[in-house]
C-alpha cells in the first residue's frame, strides 16, 4: 500500500504561521528576520523542507508533492537530493491545493497521504502513523504532541477521489484536536521564532534528535561541508558545523554548538560562540558574536532578546564583495528547481492535465 | 586628602554618523584641558550606532586615559550594548543604568587613594593579611 506526502509551504517570505498560543511575540519570525520562508531556511546544511523530504524518502515514500504559496519563489527551493521524488505545485491558497492533489494521488493508486507543513521539524514514525490511521477507519487523522495539535495529518486519497472533497477539507482544517488523534512521542520542534532554530541545532549536535549535519565529520563533533575553507590559525571547537563554500578566516574561533551555513564568510579574528550564522552572511573582522542568530545584516541576541539591523557593512552584511569574490557558487552543486517545473493547482482542478507535466530535473 | 573634582555629563547624539562624531569629538576635546577629566557619556538618546560610534567612544577613552582621567557610559540601550559586545569593547568601559549612578561612581572613595591599613604577620612559611 503506497503512501504519498504533501508538504505545504505557506505564508509570506520570512514568516511562519503558528497555531501554538503564546509562541508569537517580539521575536516571532513575522518580523522577517530570515530572508526566506522558514521551511526553506538552512539548518546544518539542508533546509527544513529537505530534511523532511529526506525522512519521507527514508521511510519509503516515493511520491512527494510540495505546494508552494505564490509568494515563495521557486528559485528559493534549493535541494541537494531527492528531486526525482518531487512534484511541485503553486497555489494562491495552499490549502485549496490539497484536495486536487489527493485526487491525483488516488488516480495514481496511492491510498493515503501524509500532509504537513515543514516549518515544524518532527520525526514521527511514518509507518506507525499510517497504521494508526488505517486502524481508526477515519478519513483524516491529525497528529499532536504534548504542546497540542501539530500541522501534520494523514488523509485518505480514496475519500477525495470519491467526491467527498468538502468533507475532507473540513476535517483537515478543523482547528481543534479531534478524538482519535495520533500522539507523537518522538522529537518535535516547532519553529515559531528564530530561537527555535538555535535550539534545533543544539539538539542535533547533542543527538537529542535524528537531524544529522550534511557533510563530513572531520573530528568528533566537527562537521564540514563541501568547499568549506578554514584558514590558518582558525580554531573550531566542536560541536560545530561549517557549511558549503563557507570561509572561516584566519585567527577565528567557532565554538559552543555554533553553525555557519552555506556561503557565509567569517572574517579575520572573529569569534562565533553559541550562535547560528545563516546562509550568505558576511561577519566582519575582530567581532565577538555570542548567543546570537545572524542573518545578512540582522543580528538577534538571544539573551538580551533584541534584534538589530546593522547598516555598517564592515560588521555584518549580505553578499559582501569579499564573499562574492571568495566563494564561487558552482551551479552543478546547487540543484535549483527550474521555474517551468511548477504546476498551477487551479489548472489542475480545471483541466486535469497534470500527469504530463512531471518533468523535474533529477540530481 | 581626597578632593572632589567635577564630573562632566555629556549627551551623546542620537545618530552617531561621521559628521556627528567629529562634532562630538571636538566637544570632548574642549573638556580635556583640566587635569584628570571625569566624563560620563549619557547614551540614552542613541538610536543608531555602528563602528564609527564605537571608534568615537574609544577615542574619548584614549584621550581621557592619557590625562589620567576616566570615562563612563550611562543609560546604554540594549542595541548599543550589543554593538559594544560585538566589537569586544564592552569590557573597556564601566557602564551604568543612568547618569546619576555613573556620576555617583566617581564620588565613591577610590581604594587606591586611601589604602586599608594592613599588618602583615609572618607565619610559618606563609604571609596572610590581618584585618
Going by CATH, the homologous superfamily of chain B would be: STAS domain
Rounded mean pLDDT score of chain B: 81
Major interchain interface with per-chain residue totals: A-B, 16 and 13 residues
Care to count the β-strands of chain A? 31
User: Sheet bearing the most strands of chain A, described?
Assistant: 8 strands, mixed
Termini of chain A, distance in Å?
27 Å
Uncertain parts of chain B: 121-131
Number of domains of chain B: 1
Helix content of chain B: 25-40%
Q: Under the CATH scheme, which architecture of chain B would be assigned? A: 2-Layer Sandwich
Mean pLDDT, all residues of chain A: 80
Just name the CATH architecture of the largest domain in chain A: Alpha-Beta Complex
In a few lines, what is going on in this structure?
The complex is a heterodimer of chains A (363) and B (131). Chain A has 363 residues and is of the alpha/beta class. Chain A has eight helices and 31 strands.
Describe the structure.
The complex is a heterodimer of chains A (363) and B (131). Chain A is α/β, with parallel strands linked by helices and 363 residues long. Chain A folds into 2 domains: 3-192 and 333-356, Spore Coat Polysaccharide Biosynthesis Protein SpsA, Chain A (Alpha-Beta Complex), CATH 3.90.550.10; 213-329, UDP N-Acetylglucosamine Acyltransferase, domain 1 (3 Solenoid). Helices cover 21% and strands 30% of the residues of chain A. Chain A has 8 helices and 31 strands. In chain A, strands 11-9-10-7-1-4-6-31 form an 8-stranded mixed beta sheet, with helices on both faces. The model of chain A is unreliable at 12-28, 325-339 and 346-363 (pLDDT under 50). In chain B, helix 1 packs parallel to helix 2 (51-66). Chain B has helices at 18-30, 51-66, 78-86, 99-107, and strands at residues 8-11, 38-42, 70-74, 94-96, 119-122, 127-130. In chain B, 27% of the residues are buried. The model of chain B is unreliable at 121-131 (pLDDT under 50). Chain B has one domain (8-130): 2-Layer Sandwich (Transcription Regulator spoIIAA). Chain B is built from 4 helices and 6 strands. In chain B, the strands form 2 sheets. In chain B, strands 1-2-3-4 form a 4-stranded parallel beta sheet. A two-stranded antiparallel ribbon of chain B has the order 5-6. With 131 residues, chain B is α/β, with parallel strands linked by helices.
Amino acid at each position: 500500500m503506497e503512501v504519498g506526502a504533501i508538504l505545504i509551504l505557506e505564508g509570506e517570505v520570512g514568516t511562519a504561521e503558528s497555531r501554538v498560543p503564546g509562541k508569537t511575540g517580539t521575536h516571532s519570525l513575522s518580523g522577517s528576520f530570515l530572508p526566506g520562508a522558514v521551511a526553506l531556511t538552512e539548518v546544518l546544511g539542508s533546509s527544513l523542507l529537505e530534511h523532511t523530504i529526506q525522512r519521507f524518502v527514508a521511510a519509503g515514500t516515493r511520491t512527494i508533492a510540495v505546494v508552494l504559496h505564490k509568494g515563495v519563489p521557486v528559485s528559493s527551493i534549493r535541494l541537494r537530493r531527492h528531486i526525482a521524488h518531487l512534484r511541485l505545485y503553486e497555489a494562491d491558497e495552499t490549502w485549496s491545493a490539497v484536495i486536487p492533489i489527493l485526487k491525483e494521488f488516488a488516480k495514481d493508486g496511492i491510498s493515503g497521504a501524509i500532509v504537513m507543513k515543514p516549518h515544524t521539524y518532527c520525526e514521527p514514525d511514518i509507518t506507525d502513523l499510517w497504521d494508526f490511521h488505517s486502524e481508526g477507519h477515519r478519513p483524516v487523522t491529525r497528529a499532536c504532541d504534548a504542546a497540542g495539535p501539530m500541522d501534520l495529518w494523514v488523509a485518505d486519497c480514496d475519500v477525495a477521489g470519491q467526491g467527498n472533497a468538502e468533507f475532507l477539507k473540513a476535517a483537515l482544517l478543523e482547528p481543534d484536536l479531534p478524538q482519535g488523534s495520533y500522539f507523537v512521542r518522538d522529537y518535535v520542534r516547532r519553529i515559531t521564532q528564530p530561537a527555535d532554530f538555535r535550539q534545533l541545532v543544539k539538539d542535533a549536535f547533542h543527538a537529542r534528535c535524528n537531524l544529522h549535519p550534511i557533510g563530513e565529520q572531520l573530528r568528533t563533533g566537527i562537521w564540514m561541508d563541501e568547499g568549506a575553507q578554514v584558514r590558518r590559525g582558525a580554531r573550531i571547537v566542536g560541536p560545530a558545523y561549517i557549511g558549503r563554500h563557507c570561509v572561516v578566516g584566519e585567527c577565528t574561533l567557532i565554538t559552543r554548538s555554533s553553525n555557519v551555513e552555506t556561503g557565509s564568510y567569517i572574517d579575520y579574528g572573529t569569534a562565533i560562540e553559541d550562535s547560528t550564522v545563516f546562509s550568505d552572511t558576511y561577519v566582519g573582522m575582530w567581532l565577538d558574536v555570542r548567543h546570537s542568530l545572524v542573518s545578512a545584516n540582522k543580528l538577534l541576541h538571544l539573551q538580551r532578546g533584541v534584534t538589530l539591523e546593522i547598516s555598517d557593512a564592515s560588521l555584518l552584511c549580505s553578499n559582501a564583495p569579499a564573499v562574492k569574490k571568495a566563494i564561487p557558487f558552482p551551479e552543478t552543486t546547487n540543484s535549483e528547481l527550474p521555474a517551468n517545473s511548477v504546476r498551477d493547482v487551479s489548472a489542475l482542478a480545471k483541466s486535469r492535465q497534470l500527469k504530463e507535466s512531471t518533468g523535474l530535473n533529477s540530481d | 586628602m581626597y578632593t572632589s573634582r567635577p564630573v562632566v555629563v555629556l549627551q551623546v547624539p542620537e545618530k552617531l554618523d561621521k559628521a556627528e562624531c567629529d562634532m562630538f569629538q571636538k566637544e570632548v576635546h574642549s573638556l580635556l584641558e583640566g587635569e584628570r577629566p571625569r566624563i560620563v557619556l549619557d547614551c540614552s538618546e542613541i538610536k543608531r550606532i555602528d563602528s564609527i560610534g564605537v571608534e568615537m567612544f574609544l577615542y574619548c577613552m584614549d584621550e581621557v586615559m592619557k590625562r589620567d582621567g576616566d570615562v563612563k557610559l550611562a543609560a546604554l540601550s540594549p542595541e548599543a550594548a550589543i554593538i559594544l559586545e560585538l566589537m569586544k569593547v564592552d569590557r573597556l568601559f564601566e557602564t551604568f543604568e543612568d547618569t546619576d549612578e555613573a556620576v555617583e561612581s566617581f564620588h565613591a572613595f577610590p581604594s587606591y587613594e586611601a589604602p586599608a591599613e594592613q599588618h602583615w604577620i609572618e607565619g610559618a612559611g606563609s604571609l596572610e593579611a590581618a584585618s
